[in-house]
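RETRY 2/3 - previous attempt timed out on the joint model. Re-submitting the same 819-residue input unchanged.
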Amino acid sequence: MTVKLLNTNQIMRQVSYALALGVGAQVYFFGSSVLIQIFLACITGLITEALFLRLRGSEIKPEIADGSVVLTAILLAISIPSIAPWWIIVLGVSFAVIFGKQIFGGLGNNPFNPAMLGYAFLLISYPMQMTQWPADYISMGQAADVIFGLSNIDGLTGATSLDHVKTQLTMGIPIQELELNSISQLWINIGFLIGGIYLLLRRIILWQIPVSLLSGVVVMSTALYLVDSNQFASSLFHLVNGATMLAAFFIATDPVTASTTPSGRIIYGFLIGILIVIIRVFGGYPDAVAFAVLLLNITVPLIDFYTQPKVFGK
Amino acid sequence: MLKFKYNGGLKLENPYPVDAIDLIRIPLPDKVVLPMQQRIGNQAIPIVSVGERVLTGQIVATIDDQRCAPVHASISGTVVAIDEHVYAHKSGLKGLCVTIESDGKDEWVDTSIGCTEHYEACTANTIYNKIRVSGIVGMGGAGFPTHTKVRLAEGCHTLLVNATECEPGITCDAALMQAYPTKVIRGIEVLLHICQAERAIIAIEDDKQDAIAALNKFCNNENITIEVMPTKYTSGAEKLLLKSLLGIEVPTGKFASDVGVLCQNVATVVAMFDAVVENRPLISRAVTVAGSAVKESKNFQVRLGASYDYLLSFVDIVEGSHKISMNGLMMGIELDSTNYSVSKNTNCVFIDQLEESKPTKECIRCGLCNTVCPVDLLPQQLYWYSKSENIDKAIEYNLLDCIECNCCSYVCPSYIPLVDYYQYSKSLYKQQVKEKQQTESARERYEFRELRLERNKRERAEMMEAKKIALKEKMAKDKAHKATVEAALERVDAAKSAHGSQDDG
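RETRY 2/3 succeeded.
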């Protein structure tokens, strides 16, 4: 293993950079509204973190410089609809930083993935704003108007493929999968996949979680597909739609909240993959990454306890 | 090649690469300071006095302890002081040292008596004894008395000679093997003779090609094989070496000798050859002097007790603030000055340029430490429990199996000094055990006292009872006696009155 060793700050920065391709694809297909969200998220995150660090009486500069809050902010910003009103992301990031991270003692001590906690909070509290995805490319100016409430959102939104599948399923209409395949979703997921592979090669993340998570998705969706291919989408559909790749390489791999033993990581990732499909197909919300990850976060101590490796000489 | 593997470990580059390795003999130091305390065991007791003239190789201190070896004068001259000096140890504690000032003659004690070439005619016991009086200890860094270790491994099947060099940057064993390949081979033969193992394996890493060539050239004993292993840090740890070469996993809490293997460092083997065949006690060793502040790393054959300053006067050191460390970058210790002396287990002195300290951050549970731990621990969990002083839990997570190799601290992206935490926990655990023992013995003492009081009470009661019975018996007896007396008196009275009435009548 002769890979250049990175420190915590560099790791956080590298992960943020690795998101670039996926974000780039989002910008390409839906315009730069997502960049406004990222900007708002980062500002909110930094301010909230600084305030809380001050309240906790710890040093602000070195703590904030680790880049973890920026990463959380970016992850949340790219997960929400890019034309959601500004207060959505401000509220979400503040919640994520305060209740997802600082309240437990800051970096390294939080049991739940802060970005996903923020996402779940927003989705439950503001389901309408959180499900209005842009249907097409929106220019920067138009997006800014919508985000800051200067113009109406009507006419800009559309159902995502995941929404569509769910609607079809509930109405009992057979899926015409080819019609559903969305080229934008495909490229965004490919963007995150490439970024994830970069992280793997640099050994910033380990292979266990992404591989097992994607296997979980494939296994569960294939099982359903085999039961009834008219009602359930194929595993390919699940792999390249929604936040699957983002989850596999950037969210479930958050080291702080994931399982830490080698075999525990495999169980952890696999179960998230299974849950993603189950919640997507049978749950009430369109995407399922946040709930799947949060549910598995709770089980981490248990998984870690039962998957301790055999110690040398025991 | 390597048949078996162990998990973890690190592929580390030599931080101080050199073109050629050479063992340089340096002139005798003017003064040597010999520490009496050697790693474990009791402190040796000086048997010379201030002002006494000593010869090279003369025993200056000894003690009857199996975990301790005698100390020899490493130069001839006069004992000028027997006093306390700060030891080259993390604790910074002081210990007794014998200081000898050289007379420049290097006059030796008589080295003509002993086993010599005919060691094969000597019994194992004679040779153990020779090793003991020659003051030989493990020279890889452990400093454990060799005679005790060899004796413990009696009846072993394999002799494993550790020539892996414990850490990157240290080249003293390589230098020694290149300089004295025949001594290595013959030293192994001596060991094979005493421990009766069927075979010997020399474990050497593939970055020491010159040493490998030298050994190959002189090794013509078919019982000795040379195993070239890929260079990887912690391969030199005894138990891991056993696992990777022999496929034997030594159970936790046991030693190599428990699975029939005797493991010896190559420098120790050479020292043993010197002692047994050449009748020369351990008075010098090879030391690597290197570091980012040292212009060219060198290996010196130096007399024990020579000061670091003396050693450093033979290399060019870059000006500036320095970090001084001994015994390696990974498992060695940092020292505050160069005011220490070379001891039997000093394998290197590193002088590095002072780097900016790296601030420690919170653990992000990345688990990189798990992947490099050679003994498959969960360093991150151990850190968690050590930090919260939850010692029971740390023990449950096998704290005591940690070999303190520092691989985890090395890769930690948050620069957490993990092993420091483990050492702290281990000391807390030791204290806990000690306290538990103390309470246990206090409880035993208390219980014994209660028992004793109870017994005393019972015994007294029994005694009283016995007395009572005796008294009763006595009283009964007295009564009987009294009755007889009274009866007799009555009889006398009766007789008297009868007599009286006769008189009256």
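The mean pLDDT of chain B is 88. Closing ticket.
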